[in-house]
Automatic annotation (TrEMBL):
Residues 89-323 form the Flagellar hook-associated protein FlgK helical domain. InterPro entries: Flg_bb/hook_C_dom, FlgK, FlgK_helical. Residues 583-624 form the Flagellar basal-body/hook protein C-terminal domain. The gene is flgK. Pfam families: Flg_bbr_C, FlgK_D1. This is Flagellar hook-associated protein 1. It is found in: Bacterial flagellum; Secreted. The keyword Transport does not apply. Keywords: Bacterial flagellum, Cell projection, Cilium, Flagellum, Secreted. It comes from the Bacteria. Belongs to the flagella basal body rod proteins family.
Amino acid sequence: MSLSLALNNALSGLRVNQSALAITSTNLANLNNPNYSRKVLVQETQVIAGIGAGVTADTIQRSVNTLLQRDFREENTRLSGIKTENDYLSRIQQMFGTVANKNALGDLVNKFATSLENIGNNPEISSNHFSAVNDANQLASRIRDMANTVQQERIRADAEISQALQDMKVQMGIIAEINGTIPGQKAQGLPTGDLEDKRDQAISSLAQYVDIQYFQTDRGQINVLTGSGNTLVSGAYTAELSFRQTTYITANETYPTALDGIHFNAGGNPTTANDITAGLTGGKLAALFEARDVTLPSVTNQLDLMSAKLRDAVNLAHNRGANTPLGKGTAASDPATLLSSRSFANTAQAMTLSDDVNMVLLDANGVMVGGMGTIVAGATTPAAVQGQINAFLGANGTAQFDANGRLEIKLNSNVRFAMKDAGTVANQGDSVVQYDANLDGTTENYSGFSNFFGLNDFYVTPELTAATPAVAGQGLQNGISTSFRVRSDIVADPSTISRGKMTGTPPVLQLGSGNNEVALELAAAFEKNEVFDSITNGPSRSTTTLAGYAGVMLSYSATTAQASNNALQFQSTLTGDLQVKMQNESGVNMDEELANMVVFQNAYNAAARVIQITGEMFDTVIELA
């Protein structure tokens, strides 16, 4: 071996070990950087004309286990989705309250029932009426607050979808930009490890939002697709993803009719064909859509069902009562004494009464004024009923339909209008009204003449899109829990709560101040079992009391929240273990790097010593010459 070759070998050793020391120092500098992968200098023997000519630094490689990295990203996608789901379920669970703290919905139902029993036991005590109205108001307010909280959560989910999409676009831009840079870097022989680390970080961030699949091309670029195959990034190209955020959401607004989804390369023209929402099956984005369009609407449906059952049970009993308000005048600007909650689009539509309905006028003491009138059983129409009531009132008031098709009864001062059905004892005295309320060609049965019209309702549920209340068999029921409330004139004057039925033998009827039949029936309504239909993504069909169903909702919410919490704990542990394994393989180990540093230092010193000795030998040769 010539001295020149020995010198060249030593110089190559100096250069390579110097580079190795530089890479080691970079590794140590990023010791605590979780997004940095350890770099390794790949060394190869340099051969010239078949003779070893030292060493050369081939490339700088990253220490990354791509299979482990792929597994981690897949599990992290699941973790992100479960975490998002758990956030929403936990807030809903907090909204329902807890039985231990006596702030659950069932507690308020029982409190209202107790106050109604107090009226039944002591109807003459005015404070009992105030307490009952206060408890009824508190219950209605809690239902409204819960229902509106659900809609606020849907608005939150919609806003988070919009923000998630913006974050995705940022990460996709980073991936595309690095994809465009790496081929040039490689062509110039420049290291790309740090760029690849940054790209890996962007891919991992993107994987939190949506399930992805990806592959690396022969140019070192990574193309990213959704789990369903839509290309998000291809080389330096990024797909266009669009979404229209909705700042106000009501219960009857759903996807895709009113709420938007994710549109892929829509070009400003979002359609069903370019909507890829259904293809998002994992990650935060899918969980947000699930919360907005499935989980939260299910809670609204539960509250609506609870509201409808509570409304119908209380109103049925309350409409049997005769303690209606005193007249407030017949001027057009005066509020109606009685205003039905049912709206009639066609007042000539057929209806049938199973039994007579007797009408009387009462004075302030509940004593009958004048004679009794009767709406005879049999076939009739809403218009015919209005005409009969109007004829009976005469100079004492008027009965007419308002602009919304609601029966409106106005009275002169100092008289009250009351009705008493002449139904059978088996039907609790109610006359059954047969009427096709939903216009499906089939008549439905409604118990109680006043209850059918809604002339003396206790609870009202105005629709979201109209001024008229939603009642059984008519009107939009979606979202009635957001407007569930006690009738305004009862709130203004709690003494107008119905507490007793008309007594006596027709044609002589009266209402005594101590009559408590209706008050007791109101309280009994809370002890009666009702059939609650199953809710999609909610509780199964059950037969229970009103308070019992409040407990069913609470139990279902607690169970689903706990199941989600258990899944979150498991997934967090699994993802954490994969992350530790990945860090162990790709992260920087200080002990290993320090050991390598000593090796590179010794190798550098040895190469320097070879150069020194080779130099001395060159000097000797020159002297001998």
